[in-house]
């Protein structure tokens, strides 16, 4: 079985089976409790262990500090023993000339690296604080950093002993860190006569740091595998240490290496104690550092104690793992107990569930006798469940019979309702059609009365203009040749006005005077409309893009078609707010078989477009979205095109522009119905 299938199977069991859900419900609180206990224990042990480690290393530093105090005390006692010795006192009283040379030879006997006797005349070589203490007769011991010359003056062998090769820097440190003691020597009159100067060089003093380490980190005081270390620093350089160069193999000593930047800043620069984990040369140590002060209070070095961090962490992780495994075993044991105890309890429940599932699938099953004692709650539940199934089966039979009778009645009523619904829908459609025809009739009647009045009013001034033009021609006689072109243009425009008014009259009443319908080339009429539109838009920022490729002639009234084209072009210009590119194209109109039916002209603007709400009403009389419009242009244009046997379509995208297309047939046909196609 694949792992994925196994996981999915158990997930389904936990979601659907009661025993497993009970196992989860009883185990989860225990698990969460144990997990919380682990988390609390982990937090507590981490905090406690780490705080305890820091306290221990701080205590180790205190022990090392007291060891250094004892070291300085022993050093001072050695000088005091020298000063109180018989040989020193005898020479001081009877042979002072040999005293200084004799003292310089006593360093090995008193376990000091240098012993020098200074006459009182050399007191100026010491600092003012040291002079003050010497004059008052006070002994003093302090740390001091001396250069190579000062070391040579104390002992010619000291400069060589103090040299430290700085690892990774390819240089040598020549200065030395010394623990120095000064003891004033007075004569019998109580005056300062001599200054006894002695001490030890701390550079490369391995025996000293090893002795302090053995004192601080006694056997079996550290975790197994850990390593306790002690270091003396001169500035930030390790001058004496038992920190190995290789912490894994415990090889060498890290003498001549520098302390980390964090420790240097806090201890050397701020003069504070550092207690925390620190990276000591090649590994992390639980570390403690304290500054070493000179006699004038300045920080001249550091004292360090610490031990490897990893063995402590390893022991801690081992304890955590052991505790976690123990808790998990307890959790597993309790889960097994819960599972075994719940299995016998939930077998009857699972049987009831299986019966319910079988009944749901259409099978006739019953719970029957359960292997439980008389009066058991689950046994009573099973009997009640069987009784309920019997009653449910009886009621289902009654419901089926009632449902059959109800279906017959519903079918009869539905057929009757369906017939009445169809009849009602038919009457509604007829009502809508009648209402639409009535609205259109009322609009056309109003439009007819309006156009008849307008045509009559226009014809009167046109007749006056025509009479005056003919009178002018009569009066001018032969001189009319000079203005013949202008007079001809006036006559043409008067004819155009009369044709328009005649079209209006024809639109307003049926059976009136019919306009002259002849064959015309569509491109010529389009060019004439462009001439008229250009003359009226000279002051507008409108460009015309013209592509006239139609070859087929069409049978139309020239003046009416000219009226339609001018109206569509002006509408496009107004839609672009009197600026932009207006595109006019013509082409042959082909049917589905590629046969020429006539010609078409398309007028495209890049204006605001037409909304879907207005698209259905643009050809209604008096509908307009312009304040200065009358709403008759598109209605009249549509009527002209349809009466000519053609079609008018419009395509528009709101915010991008519209295209009006006029399709005209080669041979005029009387339209049987309104042909108008609108797409958005």
TrEMBL record:
Pfam families: HATPase_c (PF02518), HisKA (PF00512), sCache_3_3 (PF17202)
Compartments where found: Cell inner membrane; Cell membrane
EC number: 2.7.13.3
Keywords associated with the record: Cell membrane, Coiled coil, Kinase, Membrane, Phosphoprotein, Transferase, Transmembrane, Transmembrane helix
Keyword Cell membrane (UniProt): yes
UniProt key word NAD: no
Catalytic activity annotation: ATP + protein L-histidine = ADP + protein N-phospho-L-histidine
Regions crossing the membrane: 20-44
SUPFAM superfamilies noted in UniProt: ATPase domain of HSP90 chaperone/DNA topoisomerase II/histidine kinase, Homodimeric domain of signal transducing histidine kinase, Sensory domain-like
GO CC, one annotated term: plasma membrane
Listed name of the protein: histidine kinase
Species the sequence originates in: Photobacterium phosphoreum
């Amino acid at each position: 079985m694949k792992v994925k299938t196994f996981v999915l199977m158990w997930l389904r069991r936990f979601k659907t089976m009661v025993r497993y859900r009970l196992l989860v419900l009883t185990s989860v609180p225990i698990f969460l409790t144990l997990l919380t206990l682990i988390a609390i224990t982990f937090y507590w042990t981490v905090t406690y262990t780490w705080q305890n480690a820091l306290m221990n290393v701080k205590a180790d530093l205190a022990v090392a500090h007291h060891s250094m105090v004892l070291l300085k005390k022993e050093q001072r006692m050695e000088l005091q023993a020298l000063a109180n010795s018989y040989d020193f006192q005898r020479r001081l009283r009877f042979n002072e000339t040999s005293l200084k040379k004799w003292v310089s030879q006593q360093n090995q006997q008193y376990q000091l690296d240098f012993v020098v006797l200074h006459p009182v005349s050399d007191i100026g070589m010491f600092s003012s604080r040291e002079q003050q203490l010497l004059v008052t007769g006070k002994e003093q011991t302090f740390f001091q950093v001396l250069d190579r010359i000062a070391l040579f003056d104390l002992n010619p062998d000291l400069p060589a002993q103090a040299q430290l090769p700085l690892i990774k820097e390819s240089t040598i440190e020549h200065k030395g860190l010394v623990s120095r003691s000064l003891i004033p020597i007075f004569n019998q009159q109580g005056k300062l006569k001599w200054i006894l100067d002695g001490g030890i060089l701390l550079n490369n003093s391995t025996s000293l740091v090893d002795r302090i380490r053995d004192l601080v980190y006694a056997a079996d005081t550290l975790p197994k595998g850990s390593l306790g270390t002690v270091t003396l620093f001169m500035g930030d350089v390790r001058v004496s240490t038992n920190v190995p160069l290789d912490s894994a193999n415990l090889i060498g000593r890290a003498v001549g290496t520098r302390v980390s930047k964090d420790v240097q800043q806090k201890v050397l620069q701020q003069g504070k104690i550092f207690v925390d984990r620190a990276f000591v040369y090649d590994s992390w140590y639980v570390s403690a550092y304290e500054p070493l002060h000179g006699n004038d209070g300045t920080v001249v070095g550091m004292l360090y104690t610490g031990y490897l961090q990893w063995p402590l962490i390893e022991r801690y992780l081992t304890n955590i793992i052991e505790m976690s495994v123990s808790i998990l075993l307890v959790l597993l044991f309790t889960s097994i107990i819960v599972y075994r105890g719940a299995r016998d309890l939930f077998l009857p429940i699972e049987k009831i569930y299986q019966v319910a599932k079988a009944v749901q699938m259409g099978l006739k099953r019953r719970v029957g006798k359960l292997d439980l004692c008389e009066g058991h709650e689950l046994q009573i539940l099973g009997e009640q469940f069987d009784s309920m199934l019997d009653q449910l089966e009886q009621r289902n039979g009654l419901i089926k019979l009632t449902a059959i009778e109800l279906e017959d009645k519903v079918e009869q009523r539905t057929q009757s309702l369906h017939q009445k619904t169809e009849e009602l829908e038919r009457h509604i459609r007829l009502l809508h059609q009648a209402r639409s025809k009535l609205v259109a009739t009322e609009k056309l009647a109003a439009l007819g009365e309006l156009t008849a009045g307008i045509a009559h009013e226009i014809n009167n001034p046109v007749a006056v203009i025509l009479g005056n033009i003919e009178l002018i021609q009569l009066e001018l006689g032969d001189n009319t040749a000079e203005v013949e072109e202008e007079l001809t243009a006036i006559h043409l425009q008067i004819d155009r006005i009369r044709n328009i008014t005649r079209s209006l009259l024809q639109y307003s009443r049926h059976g009136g005077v019919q306009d002259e319908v002849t064959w015309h080339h569509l491109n010529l009429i389009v060019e004439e409309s462009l001439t008229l539109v250009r003359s009226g838009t000279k002051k507008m920022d409108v460009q015309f893009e013209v592509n006239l490729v139609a070859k087929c002639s069409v049978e139309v009234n020239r003046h009416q078609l000219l009226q339609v084209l001018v109206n569509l072009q002006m509408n496009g210009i107004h839609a672009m707010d009197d600026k932009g590119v207006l595109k006019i194209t013509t082409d042959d109109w082909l049917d589905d078989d590629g046969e020429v039916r006539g010609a078409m002209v398309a007028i495209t603007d890049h204006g605001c477009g037409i909304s879907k709400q207005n698209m259905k009403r643009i050809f209604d009389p008096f509908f307009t979205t312009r304040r200065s419009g009358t709403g008759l242009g598109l209605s009249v244009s549509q009527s002209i095109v349809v009466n000519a046997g053609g079609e008018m379509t419009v395509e528009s995208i709101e915010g991008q522009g519209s295209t009006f297309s006029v399709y005209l047939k080669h041979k005029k046909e009387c339209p049987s119905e309104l042909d108008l196609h609108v797409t958005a």
